[in-house]
Design brief:
heterodimer; A: 95 residues; mainly alpha; Histone, subunit A; 3 helices; B: 492 residues; alpha/beta; Amidase signature (AS) enzymes; 11-stranded mixed sheet; 11 strands; 34% helix; globular
Chain lengths: 95, 492
Amino acid sequence: MSLTNDQLQAVAHLARIAVEPDWAEALRSDINGILEQADRLDDPRLNDLEPMAHPLDQVQRLRPDEVTETDDRETLMAAAPAQENGLFLVPKVIE
Amino acid sequence: MSTSDIPHRGGDAALINASIAELRAGLAAGEYTANDLSAAFAARIETIDPSLNSLVSRVEPVEPASETGRLAGIPYVHKDIFCAKGTRTTCGSRMLADWVAPYDSTVHERLTRSGAVLLGKANMDEFAMGSSNENSHFGAVANPWDTNAVPGGSSGGSAAAVAARLVPFATGTDTGGSIRQPAAFCGVTGIKPTYGRVSRYGMIAYASSFDQGGVIAKSAEDCATVLGEMAGFDERDSTSADREVPDYAATLNDSIAGLRVGIPRQWFSEALDPAVGDAVTAAIDELRAAGAETVEIDLPDADIALAAYYLLAPAEASSNLSRFDGVRFGYRCEDPKDLQDLYERSRSEGFGAEVKRRILVGTYALSAGYYDAFYRRAQKARRLVTDHFQRAFEQCDVIAGPVTPTPAFDRGAHSDDPAKMYLEDIFTIPVNLAGLPGMSVPAGFVAGRPVGLQLIGRHFDEARLLNVAHQYQQRVDWHTRMPSLGGDSSNH
């Protein structure tokens, strides 16, 4: 199964990654090389197997619904690349 | 030895080759202080690391938080994937080049509580994606045995730093082989514990159903000491295993007579460099000489495991790495014209090529219409590979084989063909699919480059792996060999 250029651009849009034209062809060839290996999964022995999502059979633990971490807004906001009055800044969304 | 004997130019072979137990004894006897030790290793880093680039950041050593812990006063470095509050934590990426962790990972918290002293953050493949450490935003790392060779990846900086004796131990993480493969390439001992054994809290996520923290050190004995301090249940990691951690040191000296060692016949095929095969076979002979019995087992479908991993891990990565959006933390592009442009350019400029490739492969594998053909199919393959291990462990107690098909390859050798680079992981990936513990133990050299013996155990059987590795290291001295480094006279 191989990826066309239109498919690559559609996937890149979903992933919010810009694929510049000068990289697109090499990237497509790399990804198709990787997807080629996926042909090995066309193996009839796989048909009836239960998909395995996780290496350990364990149930999801629950904990009491209590606040365990205190508000540390100042520290966390300090990492923001652009902020004002404790709010994240982004380009204008609504004209 | 008096404190005046502590080396400041990296020449004291006794100190830099000492085990953690020996260093602890030296500290207890007052031969040197914790400050002397951290100063000595920091000086060695200063002298030697410029030629290796194994560290991304250095950290000013502080007094140990404990005087009596098992790691009290022992210097180390973290793979730069572990958060340590107030230290820059980059994950080898431009995306996090200036990010300072606002909290401690559980691993860091536990090592600190045990008295270990952080000296720096180790270089790595960006977001732990790579097998050569050539994917770091902070430059490639040189293999201390041969600077033309890669150190392996993704924990390449950790392995190179321990091999060069810049620190007694380093942390690492292993998603598809990232502790075992660099340990093999650099001639050091590494353990990737069972999935869930070591908390992932504060360890930057790549593929959450595979990622596991572990240790790289000079010997199995040192790995046992460090792992014992790192491992254990953590309620802040929802996949952490709620099981008691045994005293790994207590069983190191147990005899391995009668132990059944499984040899996967499919792993000694044409894919394996014959010289590597010879070294691994000689290592297995040593286990036999120590009383172990060997039995041939079947672990087929390594190619299917590889194909499954390179869909599943990217799928998980595409989800995990969606948090990097240029808004809340991390890299942000200049002058975004709208929100879409902000996301796209921040991610495109902040991530390197391999990370972007894997995000795109993962996004594709999860996208509508392809989910069943790729993702679900790969999950079934994960079951197939895990079943193979289950059957194998009906016949044996541990599995022994190669870590990698070849010794360390030259820098640049595979960098233009990702699919070829992925073949490096053919013997390590199946272990991650099944969530089993695995080790790499130095087992000789091919043309001056180290070779590793891989040991694989049942779930939560780290104690047995460490025991077998330690017994092996009582019979051979590969793990005591040290590379010859510029300006350093302590080669032996």
